[in-house]
Amino acid sequence: xxxxxxxxxxxxxxxxxxxxxxxxxxxxxxxxxxxxxxxxxxxxxxxxxxxxxxxxxxxxxxxxxxxxxxxxxxxxxxxxxxxxxxxxxxxxxxxxxxxxxxxxxxxxxxxxxxxxxxxxxxxxxxxxxxxxxxxxxxxxxxxxxxxxxxxxxxxxxxxxxxxxxxxxxxxxxxxxxxxxxxxxxxxxxxxxxxxxxxxxxxxxxxxxxxxxxxxxxxxxxxxxxxxxxxxxxxxxxxxxxxxxxxxxxxxxxxxxxxxxxxxxxxxxxxxxxxxxxxxxxxxxxxxxxxxxxxxxxxxxxxxxxxxxxxxxxxxxxxxxxxxxxxxxxxxxxxxxxxxxxxxxxxxxxxxxxxxxxxxxxxxxxxxxxxxxxxxxxxxxxxxxxxxxxxxxxxxxxxxxxxxxxxxxxxxxxxxxxxxxxxxxxxxxxxxxxxxxxxxxxxxxxxxxxxxxxxxxxxxxxxxxxxxxxxxxxx
Length: 474
Description:
Number of strands: 22
Structural class: alpha/beta
Oligomer: single chain
């Protein structure tokens, strides 16, 4: 007889573990099944995000920024450091320590909320039974009145550039290099490619990023992407757009990458190749054939507006379903589903989910881009303001970028906010709150912002929507 739970969650990433904790807070008996193994060979809760994604990449980004600042930023402050070096073992070790701290923290949260963790790969069987295969191959079963599928995603592998962990690496491999490569190639100029490319570029690697699309950061606002591209070029990060990779060969301990661009056939020779062309839903071995849960053409679990699969008591959240593959999106879906299961009014607004790229400068946005508004025929007005006119940014020697506010031309409701510059990963929250409460650019413009702060750029951009910015010409 299997153990019976009110909720069984398969997957302990930012979608699954949050869903489990919220369900437990609501008085439900909860179990979580997860198979992620840490460097120590033990169960490591937190999924890709905490183990080989969001958290470790930010640790390395911050460490590499400190090193980069020694020679590129501190001299402007009158501070000189000679012969600065990186101890890569300590560099990577700090990241590992942070990961261990947070994965262990989830275990403590499970204990505090009486969530029962199971170590192994979960598979949904008919009748909401969950089969668990532990690392030794032992099979057991539990059951849930409700089952939440939160199996996450995995890197997309190119057929001509299979991951080998030595020369051709994924995001996890790029977080654990034992030495700084002289030359690093990156396929894909998305979030992962830009962030990890930035890490190793700052440490001295010659980094070349190939992007198959004809525009850089096409998902972002064009003005923001243009500013970011200019700054990345100044940092020595080489980004080639409209460059389609086609073949990879390993010769003499080097990676020979063939690609085509506007000038025809090219070959890039590097020491390591990071393939970062996106991620796909991970559903291998997740579903028995007779459970009735459907997958779409991209292998994602099909759900309705309430993240229900159509099978009684079976829900799905996070990277395994439609929508952006963002940790915070998955977490909010987890909260919403837990509340729906408990008979409460769960909520998630896909129109106000913020996006952040933690490069230097940072890039962040929420809502519609100018191109999307034009395509939809929505009348709009624009306000922008540069960080170069913000006293705090200049004092920090980080006066790069701008804030751009898009508001409806008739109602003044904020439709999108796009930022590139210092600290915009934090500033975007103000825009999200405004949009979630159906606020207008006038609302932002009338709110007192502290001086001197970076947030004044948001204030001035909102003022600029109606051509009344104070610290720039209108």
